[in-house]
User: Which sequence fits this backbone?
């Protein structure tokens, strides 16, 4: 349902992506792995419209979204849990969630469902988002993305900087989220976690796809090779 | 009794200064834009009021009903067509563009209305008084003060209790992520400018009812607005009201000591606050 074709991205003169091809099918979980600076965040930003891409580079259910603004792409059902959570610091937890749901897309996700998924958010609904712990912030960021009832969620660094117990918790709820008919792209530094959750893996290196394949069909050696370029 | 009376006048005048300041504070809070043309836009609203009252024979307070939406539309278009293009990492372009706009407005108004001082005639209420214990207070300043408090309370309510306010705060916190939530930054900023200009419209009409004004009156109002914002602390609307009142009272005390010292005393109070509390008296709590 999402197709990136020959996706390129630039920061001023610096070219960060060199023609990525990436496909996400319905109900599919894609893992994107790669070393620091490989272009993982950049590709997520290009897909969501935060970085300009050219017409034809990104298609969503057959529709060209390459020229759309980020808010227009969001309204079509693509949500992102950004790297570093990036909650709205001066809004409280509940307001952050409500902002996530402002596109008015209908579906199963609403405030009470999110509080059911992450009870701690319900307990702290009136607390400033900035006062949450890192793990709670990640839960709020996930809840915020779910509130838009997306059909595709991009998780950029889903577990980076979180305590192991929180990571475990988040991976535990992931199937609940995806099981509801949502596709996902999971950017993850931890290769075994990525392989465990994903149907298909893309390994990026220096702005290019170094390796791709079904999780069952590629070996750890191949990934290791692609990851470190040795 | 002279002293008490003049301090009371200062407090009431402070409400008007807070109105000058509120729109400025709102825009800075939402998009970190310092609008150098703010004072000239107040004067533009005053001249719009002049044209409307003289064309339709309306009372200035009735003209507010027309000037507020007119200024809001001007604000939306100004932001959508010009100012949004100047916003970015560099703070200089928006400063230069609003400075240019200030010059443009002053010269444009001069061309249309000449340099003659103008005033809006508010009729009976401009001279009416009410007894407040032993003091007599003008109905007009009292009304203006009440409206100023009402405007600030409304802005506060919009900011913290409505979807629009949530959009303002989210966009101000992190415009990029706000876009991921489906908020169109350009539209949100334009709405903020429209709201700011709606407040400017009220401020402009009140200014014109209170004192005479010319196309060159803008920069002076900008300074008062700035001082009220900074005294009160950036990003805090009730602080802005307090800032306006402090400025008004300082001016009143100055004038009481020596009639020539009115404006100077206000600037002096501003400098003292800035020296003691560089972030203003009631800065917004940063997380
Ligand atoms: N704002 C920016 N301006 C200029 N160059 C940038 C910018 N952001 C990223 N880059 C460059 O683009 C390349 C890809 O960066 P990107 O953030 O996409 O990597 P990443 O795979 O997400 O890395 P990490 O694992 O560290 O998050 C890097 O070389 C980086 O230096
Ligand atoms: Mg990254």
Assistant:
């Amino acid at each position: 349902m999402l197709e990136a074709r020959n996706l390129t991205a630039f920061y001023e003169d610096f070219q960060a992506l060199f023609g990525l091809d990436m496909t996400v099918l319905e109900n599919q979980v894609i893992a994107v792995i790669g070393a620091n600076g490989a272009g993982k965040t950049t590709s997520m930003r290009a897909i969501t419209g935060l970085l300009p891409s050219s017409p034809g580079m990104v298609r969503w259910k057959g529709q060209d979204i390459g020229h759309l603004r980020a808010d227009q792409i969001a309204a079509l059902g693509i949500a992102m849990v950004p790297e570093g959570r990036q909650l709205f610091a001066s809004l409280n937890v509940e307001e952050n969630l409500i902002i996530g749901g402002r596109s008015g897309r209908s579906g199963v996700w609403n405030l009470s469902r999110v509080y059911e998924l992450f009870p701690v958010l319900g307990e702290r609904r009136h607390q400033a988002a900035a006062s949450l712990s890192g793990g709670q912030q990640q839960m709020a960021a996930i809840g915020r993305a779910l509130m838009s009832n997306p059909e595709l969620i991009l998780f950029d660094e889903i577990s980076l900087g979180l305590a192991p117990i929180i990571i475990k918790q988040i991976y535990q709820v992931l199937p609940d989220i995806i099981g509801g008919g949502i596709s996902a792209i999971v950017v993850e530094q931890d290769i075994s976690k990525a392989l465990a959750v994903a149907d298909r893996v893309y390994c990026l290196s220096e702005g290019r796809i170094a390796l791709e394949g079904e999780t069952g069909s590629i070996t750890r050696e191949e990934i290791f090779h692609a990851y470190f370029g040795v | 009794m002279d002293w008490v009376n003049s301090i009371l006048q200062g407090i009431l005048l402070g409400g008007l200064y807070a109105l000058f300041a509120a729109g400025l504070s709102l825009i800075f809070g939402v998009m970190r834009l310092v609008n150098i043309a703010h004072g000239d836009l107040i004067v533009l609203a005053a001249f719009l009021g002049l044209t409307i009252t003289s064309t339709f024979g309306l009372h200035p307070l009735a003209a507010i009903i027309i000037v507020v939406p007119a200024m809001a539309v001007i604000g939306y278009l100004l932001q959508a067509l010009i100012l949004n293009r100047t916003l970015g990492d560099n703070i200089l372009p928006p400063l230069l563009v609003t400075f240019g706009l200030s010059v443009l407005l002053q010269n444009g108004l001069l061309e249309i209305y000449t340099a003659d001082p103008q005033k809006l005639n508010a009729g009976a209420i401009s001279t009416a008084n009410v007894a407040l214990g032993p003091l007599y207070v003008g109905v007009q300043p009292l009304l203006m003060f009440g409206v100023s408090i009402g405007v600030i309370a409304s802005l506060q309510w919009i900011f913290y209790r409505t979807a629009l306010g949530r959009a303002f705060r989210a966009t101000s916190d992190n415009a990029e992520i706000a876009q991921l939530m489906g908020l169109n930054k350009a539209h949100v900023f334009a709405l903020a400018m429209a709201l700011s200009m709606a407040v400017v419209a009220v401020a402009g009409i009140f200014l014109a009812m209170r004192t005479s004004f010319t196309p060159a009156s803008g920069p002076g109002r900008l300074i008062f607005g700035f001082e009220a914002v900074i005294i009160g602390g950036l990003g805090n609307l009730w602080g802005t009201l307090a800032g306006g009142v402090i400025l008004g009272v300082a001016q009143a005390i100055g004038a009481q000591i020596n009639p020539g010292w009115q404006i100077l005393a206000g600037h002096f109070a501003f400098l003292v606050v800035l020296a003691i509390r560089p972030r203003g008296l009631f800065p917004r709590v940063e997380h």
